[in-house]
Amino acid sequence: MRLVEEVAAPATIQEATAFMKRRPDCVPWAGGTVLSTDDDAWPQSGPVPLMDIRNLTELKGINRSSVYVEIGSAATLNAIIRLPGGLGLGMLRETCLSAGTAFTRNLATLGGNLCTTHRFMSCMPVLYCMDASLELREHGAQRWYGLGRLVDENGKPRPLNGALLTRVRIPQASWSTWAVRPIGTYRYPHPQAATFAAAARFEHGALAELRIASAGSVLVRERAIELSLVGKKLPLQNRDVEDFAQGLLDKAIALGSAGDFAERIAGLAAAFLDRAPEEAL
Ligand SMILES: Cc1cc2nc3c(=O)[nH]c(=O)nc-3n(C[C@H](O)[C@H](O)[C@H](O)COP(=O)(O)OP(=O)(O)OC[C@H]3O[C@@H](n4cnc5c(N)ncnc54)[C@H](O)[C@@H]3O)c2cc1C
What domains, with CATH codes, occur in the chain? Predict the structure, then answer.
């Protein structure tokens, strides 16, 4: 663990915002399951101010409308697992359920899962597939962003630097099929653990929507590659699936993924797409 030079424990978002304005270099502490176990999760420079956000009950709420579910950034993974079915959150709930033990999931938060600055954790590719957006408080203002706000141009985590993630909004979409799988043999919290996620919707015998992403040290996703298959009749042609998998492999390698890792991503994508026609019947 890094040296801490000042600790704040705000009770309201306003207090948190005021502290972040004074100390934009502060590190928010949510569940602490990453910060307390992984030195690489801390800024590499000297002592840092810490902002303990565990008392911010405003960040723990989960609300829903007819079109989306909004999850407070400090909602725990167990709180997400306990949500009722029928909200279109199956992918996210399964991902939360596979994270650590019940003890870890009682501390671990969705915000902490998304805001790690040294690598991506397992909810990131899943929420990409679910087309989630993020509410941030920065410089005293409240703004919504796409998930891309957390990813830089090289596919690596983009630190929030003085901003607080407050809510995650997930559209209530119904998918015909989805999958979340570990990539390779390592499991969290191992530094090389990574996750593959995919979701597809079929309409009138064709692929109407497709999302595929994987995340470890980099986030691999490419809307243009997904769109190359959208609208195609089912079952997909082998050639189309092969081209898709090759496109994903090229993208993963371009982002610096190791060859075997990139091949696993492409293999999982091809297996998901091969299965898709069966699901459509
Ligand atoms: C045994 C074990 C198993 C695990 N299994 C998994 C797994 O299967 N999948 C997985 O994804 N993870 C796993 N983890 C890692 C971790 O538990 C989760 O990723 C968890 O969701 C992190 O949340 P946290 O609240 O504990 O994060 P913290 O440690 O509190 O914070 C993590 C990072 O996010 C930042 N942060 C937190 N909240 C905010 C916010 N609101 N705004 C801005 N920045 C913020 C922090 O400053 C820090 O940089 C595991 C950990 C352990 C110990």
Answer: 4-52 (no CATH), 57-171 (3.30.465.10), 177-280 (3.30.390.50)
